[in-house]
Amino acid sequence: MNLNIRNSKWNGLFSAVIASIILLNACNDKDDPGAGQQPVMPPASSMEPDFSYFNEENNPNGRVETVNNWLVAAANVTFYSSILGSHLVVPVTAYKVALQQEATFDTELDIWVWAYETTVGSAGTFQVRLTADVSNSGINWTGYISKEGSFEDFIWFEGTSEIGGEAGTWTLYENHTTGAEWLSAEWSKSDVEGKANVKFTVEAPGDHLGSSISYTINETESFNRSVIIVDTNVDNTVTAHWNSETKIGRVKSPAHYQDEDFHCWDGTLQDTDCQ
């Protein structure tokens, strides 16, 4: 009788221990933000805003005086975005391609991994490994890029983002030779509110150190797109607002116009009086 009682107690204790272990493991799996659904990736615009509105082919009138105001905005956007992106076509292209790939979860390292090849124009073919380290406080992104016979696993870009993908940062480096920080970016978006913003700042020493381009989408405003360009080299700020559907817009550039006023264009990009 006593033996049966002891066995019964032991069996009960053993069952309780096993149940506790199973419950603990279940809680750990649930609390591990890395294990589960693929993390939300930062949008492509966080690396490269859509400035196609200022492409020359969008100007049906050619370079004539009556579209001067639109041209001032277009020239500045084109010039300064080329400064910011002059060394970054490879990492930017690599990240945009990652958005089209499926990730795998590395259980040993506890990170998500995107691994693929991409060809970037005349620069050649690159091997890319993008990793996402997910924690309760957010996601750390690291972009390793290699080129056969040239360099291996150079961290060309890295950043952070919130778990839900509402905001984040990027740091992009000049090239595998210098490894110098070239550009930083801060971005945010709200699909519910129809808002998004990204600000790129030059971090490389030189004439344009501290210069920046900020691009904003706000679908609730009549001018639902805007860009602000701060040029530290000439101490000038260019501000442009436009509507992505009607094409109307306005630009302010004290250095160009020698005033603090907005100068406007209509839906055909012709100069017009500001209302």
- Give me the secondary-structure category: alpha+beta
Q: Give me the number of helical elements.
A: 4
Distance between the termini: 99 Å
Q: What average pLDDT do the residues reach?
A: 88
Strand order of the largest sheet: 1-2-3-4-5-6-7-8-9-10-11-12-13-14
Question: How are the secondary structure elements laid out?
Answer:
Blueprint: H1 2-31, H2 68-85, H3 89-98, E1 104-106, E2 111-119, E3 125-135, E4 138-147, E5 151-161, E6 167-173, E7 181-190, E8 195-202, E9 212-218, E10 225-231, E11 236-242, E12 249-252, H4 254-257, E13 263-265, E14 271-272
Antiparallel strand pairs: 1-2, 2-3, 3-4, 4-5, 5-6, 6-7, 7-8, 8-9, 9-10, 10-11, 11-12, 12-13, 13-14
What would a concise description of this structure say?
The protein has 275 residues and is an alpha+beta fold.
Written overview of the protein:
- With 275 residues, the chain is an alpha+beta fold.
- The protein has helices spanning 2-31, 68-85, 89-98, 254-257; strands at residues 104-106, 111-119, 125-135, 138-147, 151-161, 167-173, 181-190, 195-202, 212-218, 225-231, 236-242, 249-252, 263-265, 271-272.
- The chain has a 14-stranded antiparallel sheet.
- A hairpin with a 5-residue loop joins strand 2 (111-119) and strand 3 (125-135).
